[in-house]
Amino acid sequence: MALLATGGTVIAQIEDSGRGVAPIASSGSFEVSGVSVDVAGPNAEAARTAGWRLAQRKGWDMLSRRLTGRPGSLSDSALDSLVSGIVIENEQIGPNRYVAKLGVLFNRGRAGSILGVAGETLRSPALLVVPLQESGGAATVFERATPWQEAWARFRTGNSVIDYVRLTGTGPDALLVNGGQVSRRGRGWWRTILDQYGAADVLIPQVKLRRQWPGGPVIADFSAGYGPDHHVLTRFTLRVERTDALPALLDEGVRRIDAAYQQALRQGTLRTDAALSAPPPGQPTPTVNIPAQGAADLGPEVATTTSEGRTTLSIQFDTPGVAALASSEASVRAIAGVRSAVTTSLALGGVSVMRVVFDGDPAVLSAALQARGWQVTQGGGVLRIRRAAGTPSPTPSAAPAAPTGG
């Protein structure tokens, strides 16, 4: 079981390699944080081991409640095979007592299989991260190693729905992605950079550091931006009293910015710029249906209609659990004219997004959904469907039983 130390009073030591670039933390684990333990034992080591065991049990119960809505428990031997790391947020070790706040990392594949959510993933398109730091009047991205870049490299993305493309800052990174590039609006050069790194759009998390005096308080102004036009989703300010607490401050800033990006993705605010993706050579350019003025914008993408009359659009629907996801997909696929219905953005316990290809006009699809008991709201080329009050949610039809011989 690996020991990881980060945040709180224990800060992970980052190994320097060449330019001092922090290693990318790309853990695909489920992470449960804030697990409090208070355990006594015959000695300090036994108390600490017992505390970690208790944290595994409590963490698994918290993870089960988060993903399935019901408590869960496993034996210690089973948990040992699922836990990939313990994160020490804060700990106090006495001669025979262990008091700590811990985080637990669970193997995503194994834990997902046990909880029944192995195949249910919500991920954004690949988005390039450009961590911009302003300090002392200089704006820096990858021209040199910065604490902000290292904070993004330390961030574990296992619990995030954002598919981050994080650069190490070596090789051509400093030339292609720098402080000057952030202020450019031209889509042509941005498209070249994004194609180079296999991303669909760009995220620009920014921090402006203000130091009161050497070794003294540090004030950090954060903003979560996205897109070549640098749209800002949120701004906030954090402060620490000592310079040596700066890594913990930046880690908290990364966590809050990631939460803002995730919320914007679920609400449909965080969307890729259509000008950054060109149609393949020889393919007709799709016609975009522009909504009427004042129409509600309910989703991340507008509907597109090809010359053959085939419509591709997004449908938002509630998914309190896996059963609701399956029944909603089955209900949409059963409508005549629907060629495909695939959930592209999953949020168990929230609102998911389904990508639907339909032979016909969206109004016809809306009428067919209403006939099946859905309440339909249309705007911005996106359908928002909800079950009408008193209408039971359908369950996927089971295969007929095989006849028995007599």
Brief summary:
With 406 residues, the protein is an alpha/beta fold. It has ten helices and 18 strands. 30% of the residues are buried.
Helical segment tally?
10
- Rg, nearest Å: 25 Å
Distance between the termini: 57 Å
Q: Could you state the order of secondary-structure elements as H and E?
A: EEHHEEHEEEHEHHHEEEHEEEHEEHEE
Helix content: 25-40%
Structural class: alpha/beta
Query: Spans of 5+ residues with little confidence (pLDDT < 50)?
Result: 1-21, 279-302, 394-406
- Beta content comes to 25-35%
Biggest sheet features: 7 strands, mixed
Mean pLDDT, to the nearest integer, reads 78
User: How is the quaternary structure best described?
Assistant: single chain
Task: Compile the SSE list and pairings.
Layout lengths: L1 E4 L24 E11 L3 H25 L7 H7 E11 L3 E10 L1 H8 L10 E4 L2 E4 L2 E3 L6 H8 L8 E3 L7 H4 L2 H4 L4 H11 L3 E11 L6 E9 L4 E10 L5 H22 L19 E2 L15 E2 L4 E10 L2 H12 L4 E8 L4 E10 L2 H10 L2 E6 L2 E6 L19
Parallel strand pairs: 1-3, 5-8, 5-9, 6-9, 14-18
Antiparallel strand pairs: 2-4, 3-4, 6-7, 9-10, 10-11, 12-13, 13-14, 14-16, 15-16, 17-18
